[in-house]
Amino acid sequence: MNFPNSKYWTTLNNKFNHQLVENIKQYFDTQEVFSLRSIDLIIDDNYLLSEADELLNQLFTDKYLDCEIIYVCPQCDDELNEEELDDKGCQKCGYSLEHEEPTKTKVYSFQGGIRKRDISWFFIIHGMNTRGAWQEDFSWKIEKIYGYSIPVAIYKYGKIISTPFLKPFWKKFINKTLAKIKTLNDEIIIDRETQHRPDVVAHSFGTLLISELLKKYPELKLGRVILTGSIISPDFNWELIFQRGQVEAVLCHCAGKDFWSRVSHYWIYNSGPSGVIGFNQKELIHHTFEPTLRHSDFFKENFDKNINETWAPFLTDQLQPIDSNKQLQPKNKKLWQPSKLRFISFPLKYIIIALLVFSIIFLLISLPMGIIKTYNLFFTQ
Fold first, then answer.
1. Do residues 144 and 176 share a domain?
2. Same domain, 39 and 188
3. Conformational region of residue 229, where left means phi above 0, alpha means psi within -120 to 50, and beta covers everything else
4. pLDDT tens by residue, 145-174
5. How many CB atoms lie within 10 A of CB 227?
């Protein structure tokens, strides 16, 4: 049995008397275990008794309360036990049940449960060379799990191929992403009259954009963050991010056969294979390792399983302290360091890009002039 979340209380407020809803909410907010009857929700307006019973019955139907039938004394209103019913007399007040039948009534009870964390809204961001078709699927799957609508902001920065390899071009995407989060959060504040942190699900280059945002803008505040196909460097300074209160918790969902995460740091600045091996600061980050998954397999046949068994509990459950020694992780437990091969791969990257640019210019000039004349122009002068 769980505690109702804020969205459920909003639903009840739209259906029942606000004061009645507030009264029963006080029980859940202040007591771990309680029992009550409809009359206990009424202060002055007895005409609300039937609505109070409907409200409690709704909570029972939705499995937030238990319900049992009891008999009470018509005189003192105390519950009658089996002996009193057999003897037809109330032992508390001495009233004879021969004069009047005992009153049958419902008692609703809550025997304790787990307080679930509320999800205010989602910000989900895809990777490079894709338009993130999984984002649309995520929206209705998450609503199906929780049983109520959660605002999901699907952010698409476009299908990009070369930009991630050139850090000077990142600024545009970083600023657009930050502006989008701020705009959406302002809309949420206006709608709900309070500030709510977004929970984030990011994939591939989207994870790198989120990490750059957190590092560059200390004022950015996020809820719980799920990283898939992560290409953030494993030595990223999460300790600083937590010290600044920028995130509540982070889950790195790793894939053992993620080729692109493994090779990203040879070509992309500040990146690394965290999507395969996790982060160095394992005492701060929640990790889940899937040895057979590849870079984008999270959103294929395993999509439902990942959401139900891994992501949803991380998003709403009370998280236990991280024991880095007990986390499932690859056999190599050494702290990750950037490969020295990057001193070769980065210059090679720019050589390849320069050759590609030259080839494009050559072909564009060749169209009106012809290949032979263009060749002579460049190489026989």
1. yes
2. no
3. left
4. 766 667 787 776 655 455 555 565 666 667
5. 28
The tokens describing 178, both together, are 């930050």
Is 333 within a domain? no
Q: Which residues contact 318 (CB under 8 A, 6 or more apart)?
A: 114, 115, 117
Q: Render the burial of 289-320: b for 16+ CB within 10 Å, e for the rest.
A: bbeebbbbbbbeebbeebbeebbbebbbeeee
Mean pLDDT of 57-79: 86
- Kindly report the CATH number assigned to the domain that includes residue 309: 3.40.50.1820
The two three-digit tokens of residue 46, written as one number: 């007895």
CB atoms within 10 A of CB 140: 11
CA atoms of 378 and 243, how far apart (whole Å): 57
Give tens-digit pLDDT for 21-37.
Answer: 999 988 888 888 888 88
Where does 193-263 have alpha helices with state H? 205-216, 238-243, 259-263
pTM of the model: 0.66
Question: Integer distance in angstroms from the first to the last C-alpha of the chain?
Answer: 83
Pairwise CA distance, residues 136 & 153, whole Å: 10
Asked if residue 287 and residue 153 are part of one domain, the reply reads yes
- Contact status, residue 79 vs residue 71, Cβ threshold 8 Å: yes
d(CA 210, CA 225) in angstroms, rounded, equals 9
